[in-house]
Amino acid sequence: MKIMLDAGHGYCTPEKRSPDGMREYEFNRSAASLAKELLENYQNVTVYLAHSDERDVPLTERTDLANRLNVDCYVSIHANAYGTGAWNSAGGIETYIHPSRPQEALKLAQKIQRNLIHLTGLRDRGIKTADFHVLRETKMTAVLVECGFMTNKEEAALLRTPVYRKRCAQAIAKAIAEQYGLKRKSDGPKQYKVQVTFEERQEAEKLEGNLRNDGYKAVIIE
Predict the structure, then answer these.
(1) Fewer CB atoms near the end CB (10 Å): N or C, the chain?
(2) Is pLDDT at 187 greater than 70 in this prediction?
(3) Ordered DSSP codes for 97-142
(4) How many domains does the chain have?
(5) What gap in Å lies between CA 62 and CA 64, rounded to an integer?
(6) Domain for residue 148, yes or no?
(7) What are residue 166's phi and psi, to 5 degrees?
């Protein structure tokens, strides 16, 4: 299984930044890097990156590389924007496929969208179609995901945080694993359990909710 992750744009792409100066690429590359680490914990998986920290790789070069490597899946990761650069209320998550609506791409987009909404709690803007280059010129299953709005003050603050970036990466990796039935390596990352005792159940429920929001499994035993 060969996967290509594409952090959209680059450090120097004009105008691709929030009103307070965060470059979109900062979020894109972080989420892509984290998703790559997660996906490499599955058997028989090779993950390629379409972007570069050295330069803004042209779109044609990105899709040509994916086609040449004959990857099975292409996921382009972005942060959204609305308007002319001022703060506004547009917000939420949306995932794009090509207007030809290839079924495998649609199924993957649905899984990514569902997992992102579950892990982030942001508004569900749904699955949409667009004639984006990375969706049109790739010969494999391809989707483009917008993980929140840089022009929404609350969402821009989230896009800056390591926790939110990790949640987005987890959602994307989980969706790909579900789509292709990937199996974890037997020598995957170690897991640790923590047990905490409270006298009041409401305190336990509060912690359980916080842990679940951060992407961890939690259970209350009385």
Answers:
(1) C
(2) no
(3) E-TT--HHHHHHHHHHHHHHHHHH---EEEEEE---HHHHS-SSEE
(4) 2
(5) 6
(6) yes
(7) -65, -40
Percent helix, strand, coil in the chain (nearest 5)? Answer: 40, 20, 40
CA 178 from centroid of its chain's CA atoms: 15
Measured from the Cβ of residue 113, the count of other Cβ atoms closer than 10 Å reads: 22
Residue 91 lies in a domain: yes
Measured between alpha carbons, how far is 99 from 106 in angstroms, rounded to an integer?
A: 10
| Pairing mode, strands 124-129 and 93-97 | parallel
Tens-digit pLDDT profile for residues 86-118: 999 999 999 999 999 999 999 999 999 999 999
Three-state DSSP class for residue 187:
coil
Do 173 and 203 reside in the same domain of the chain? Answer: no
Q: Residue 90 forms beta bridges with which residues?
A: none
Residue 148 CB neighbour total at 10 angstroms: 25
What pLDDT was estimated at residue 170? 97
